[in-house]
Each structure stands twice: as C-alpha cells, then as structure tokens.
Amino acid sequence: MKRALLIAAALVLAGCSPSVTAKPTPAPTPVPPVVTIAYSGISTSDDFSIRVREDAAIEAASKGARFLDVTAATADSAAQLAAVNVALAALKKPAALIIAPVDGKVFGETIAAAKAAGIPILTVGAQIDDPYVSELVDTDDAAAGTLVGQAICKFSGGKGTALVIGGAVGDSVEDARQASIAAAVKACKMTSLLEHGELNVTKEVAIATAAMKNKVDLDAIFVPHGDGAAAVAKMIGATGRSRYIAVYGFDANPAEIAAILGGTETGSIRQDNVLIGRTVVNNAMTVIAGGTVPKTVSVPSLLVDQSTASIFR
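RE: above sequence
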C-alpha cells in the first residue's frame, strides 16, 4: 500500500498526473458590420428634404443602420455633387446612397464610381436618368397635378385662364406635373398658359406679374415649389386680388401654410414624407441584401387648403 502511494506521489512530482481534456474556447460570435446609408437632400433648408431626412433617419435606426446626412447647405447642383462625392470617399463609404437631386444630369462620373464600388443609388423626389440607379421613390406627380387642376376648375367655375408654371425645361417630373394640371384645366374648358420658372422665385414672380397684366381673365396660378408659391401669393395679396386669383403651390412648406391660413394662397400639395422616407430606406436595405426593388414607387399626396392647413402648422 505504502509502495503504491509512493509511486503515485512520484508521478505527481514528475508532472505525470492523469490528464484532463480541456474544452475548446468557443469562437466569438462575429459582429455584423453596421450598414451606413448616406442621404443627400436638395439643401439643408429645403422643407421636403428635411421631412424626408427625418423619417428616413428614423427608419434607418429601426433597422439598425447608420444614417449619414451629407446634404449641402444650398440648393446648388455643384455643391450637392461635391457632398455626394465626399460620401463616396473611402473613409465614409456607405452601403447605399439616397439622393434627392437638384439636377439629375450632373452625376455621370459619380454613378460610375458608385457602380465600380458596388454602392447602390436610390433617388427621391426627382429622377437621375441612369440605368444603374435602383429606384425612384416620389410623389405621384400626375395624380397631384390632377388634384390641383380640379381644384382650379372648382375655384373658377370652369372659366378663364390658369397660369401653370413649371420648373426646369425638360425635367420629366416637372413636365408630368405641369401636363396633368393643364389636362385637368382643359377638361373643364379653361385655357392654360404654360411657362417655366426654373424654380427661381424672382423669375416666377415676374412671370406671374406679367400674366396678371396681359391676361384679364387670369383666374389661377400654379407655382411648383413652396417658396415660389408663397412669394407669388404675397405679390397678389399686395394688389388686393387674392379673392379673384387662386394660387396653388407644391410642398406645403411653412411659408405656404402661413400664406394659406392668411388667405393669400389657396392651397398646396403636401407630399407624404413619412411614406417616402420609410420606403426608400426599406428598399435600400433590400438592395444592400442583394434583393430587387421596383424601378419607380409612386406615393400619393394630398391637397392642403385653408380647412386643413392648421394641421401642418
């Protein structure tokens, strides 16, 4: 017995104790990389861009994605292009890029760079005419134009002339909206006068002023963005003719809401920024994951007038 104990002790001292198989350390669970979605709106002061940004950021957070806002301070195509190119740089390389383009024709080289890097591009509000762009999420402009045209017909009783101001010449979105207003006005036997103001407030006020002088039967004016519509409404209000010439706008921004409540502007199209923001982020996540999305998603809008404007104040 003593001999056995001595042998066991010797084995321990020699490091020859019975071995115990160690359990392997489990490999750490890989942490998935945080998806970054970059967004470039029209400008940091553009009401539509602000509203879409807010709802897109909320949706991105709900998906666990990082939302990077690279919107330029001014509605300038060169400034926007520079900001987007910074977002595509190596240090900020996003998984997807959402653009509300000031001018969709300036992004040729940027799209080529995004394509080479495998970064999908989606747009909101206006189209970038390039097959690489995955999707356009936008207000149904034809339906919105019909709403405005029908409201003009109701205001005028189907008589007189409607001045329909478009944005940039050749812009497909602006042209579709202008055409649908003109078609609705024609359907109620009114005459339409089509002009382009290039989304320039000074030019739009000048066009409206000239029409008031040259068209004695002018009953309504449509201006395609909020600041321009509010400015034209203010000009008409100063002449005391707000009761006789309806002014309709697009965006229902704060300046327009104040003008509608004040009685100088008649109404404005309100885009559904919540649905636009959520849709474009959801679809960006789908494209990032390798899925496919529709080329165009049309979102309905509503016409805000004095009876509903206080809701959006």
